[in-house]
Design a protein that fits this description.
Blueprint: H1 3-13, H2 18-34, E1 44-48, E2 51-54, H3 55-64, H4 79-95, H5 104-118, H6 120-129, H7 138-155, H8 163-180, H9 192-218, E3 221-223
Length: 227
């Protein structure tokens, strides 16, 4: 089933008849298979407060790297791992947009960077794989950028790092690491800003994780990863 036909189904049926949508999608893909079309059968993987995330959504964001990546992320991230990232993304956008906004120029620049990082040929091959045009990536890019901006506006500037925390990190982490590599540690003042940035990022990620967990506990999330 082509990308545009799948999303047309979403628009026609809305989010209040999810059972009907599921049956319609399954029926259409079954007909496609019956007529011999060589396509991966799409299906609903999750409902997030009534919003649909499909297998195609996960495959698209995986192909183009359009999801939040942490230190644990690899090119072999599983469907379940990426699905959970998309669920978090949906929840954050649903709950608050703060003062964040995304315009067409933002999305164009974002997709330009994706294309450059992947290589133009690989980017084009990815679009062809899903029967998509570049503009079809717009909604994915929009949500990804908006998600980043919401988190940044809520957490980045609110995180405080104390001098004692920087001192402890310097003495217990930085100096031993440098010595283990046979290197002479730099004076703390020379790398003060770098250590502060590391600690600020770690604290911010902890706060985001706690917030996301709270959002998930209050949300209506239905997940179906079975074939």
């Amino acid at each position: 089933m082509c990308f545009k036909r799948k999303h047309l189904i979403r628009r026609l049926f809305g989010v209040q008849q999810m059972g009907a949508i599921f049956l319609v999608i399954v029926g259409i893909f079954s007909l496609s298979a019956a007529f011999g079309q060589d396509e991966t059968v799409d299906r609903i993987l999750a409902l997030v407060n009534g919003q649909v995330i499909t297998l195609t959504d996960v495959r698209v964001v995986k192909t183009f790297g359009l999801y939040q990546k942490g230190q644990e992320s690899t090119p072999d991230d599983t469907i379940e791992q990426i699905l959970n990232k998309l669920i978090n993304q949906k929840l954050v956008i649903q709950v608050t947009r703060d003062n964040a906004s995304v315009n067409r120029e933002d999305m164009d620049d974002f997709l330009d960077n994706i294309s450059e990082d992947m290589g133009n040929d690989k980017f084009r091959d990815g679009l062809d794989k899903f029967g998509m045009e570049r503009n079809d990536l717009g909604p994915y890019a929009y949500e990804r950028i908006l998600f980043n901006r919401i988190l940044s506006s809520r957490f980045d500037r609110a995180v405080l790092v104390t001098l004692d925390e920087i001192q402890v990190y310097y003495e217990t982490r930085y100096v031993p690491d440098q010595q283990a590599q046979g290197l002479e540690p730099n004076p703390m003042l020379d790398i003060f800003d770098d250590i502060e940035a590391i600690l600020r990022k770690a604290k911010s990620e902890d706060q985001v994780e706690e917030w996301l967990q709270n959002l998930r506990e209050k949300a209506d999330i239905q997940i179906n990863l079975t074939v």
